[in-house]
Amino acid sequence: MALASDDACRICTHCERAIPSLNIDLHYAHCVRNLEKCKVCSDMIPKKHAEEHYLDNHAPVSCSLCSETMDRDILTIHKGENCPQRIVNCEFCEFPLPAVDLPEHQVIMKYVAIGQNFVLLVEDTFDFVKDITMTLVAMLYKTIPWDLPG
User: Fold this and answer.
1) How far is CA 39 from CA 42, 43, 57, 146, in A?
2) Window from 18-22, 33-37, 43-47, 104-108 with minimum mean pLDDT
3) DSSP E strand boundaries for the chain
4) What does DSSP assign to residue 12?
5) What's the half-sphere exposure (Cβ side, CA atoms, 13 Å) at 115?
6) Cβ neighbours of residue 104 under 8 Å, at least 6 residues apart?
7) Please, what's the b/e burial string for 79-110 (b: 16 or more CB within 10 A of its CB; e: otherwise)?
8) Which residue from 51, 41, 128, 63 is spatially nearest to 93, judged by alpha carbons?
9) Measured distance CA(67)–CA(85) in Å, rounded
C-alpha cells in the first residue's frame, strides 16, 4: 500500500515513528502497551526484553583478569593496555608475567645481567624471586669490602 503524501502520516508520540494517520490510534495503543524507550541508548525495546537489553548492552562488566568493574565499551582497551593483571613480557628475558609485577622483575633482571647475556635463572614464577634475591645477596656479599676501619 503506497502512501499518497506525507500528510497521510502522523508521528507516534511514544516511539516517534511516522505512522499512517488511519492506523495511529491502533498503533499508539499497541506501542505504549508493548514498547519502552531505553534510558541509555533511546532504542525502542519490547518491554519484556528491556532488562535483557540493558544487561547485554549497557550494564557494567567485570574484567576477567582483575575483577575491576567498568563500562562495557572500554573492556577491550582495559584488558589490552591498562589491566594490571594482563600478561606482558620482560624486555630483558622475555619471561611472561602480570604487568603489575613487571617493574620489580625488571629491576632484578638488570642486576642479573652479565655482560651482554641476560640470564633467566628459573621458569617457576614462585621460586623465581627467591632464587634471584639469594643470588644477588651472594654477589653483593662477595663484592663489598668487609674490612671496615676501626
Assistant:
1) 6, 8, 12, 73
2) 104-108
3) 9-11, 18-20, 35-37, 44-46, 61-62, 69-70, 87-89, 96-98
4) -
5) 1
6) 129
7) eeeebeebeeebebbebebbbebbeebeebbe
8) 128
9) 10
Distance CA 133, CA 108 (A): 8
CB 103 within 8 A of CB 117: no
What's the pLDDT band for 122 if we cut at 50, 70, 90? very low
pTM reported for the whole predicted model: 0.48
Q: pLDDT band at residue 39, thresholds of 50, 70 and 90? A: very high
Identify whether the C-beta of residue 59 lies closer than 8 Å to the C-beta of residue 75. no
* Spatial separation of the C-alpha atoms in residues 144 and 90, rounded to whole Å: 29
Residue type present at position 87: I
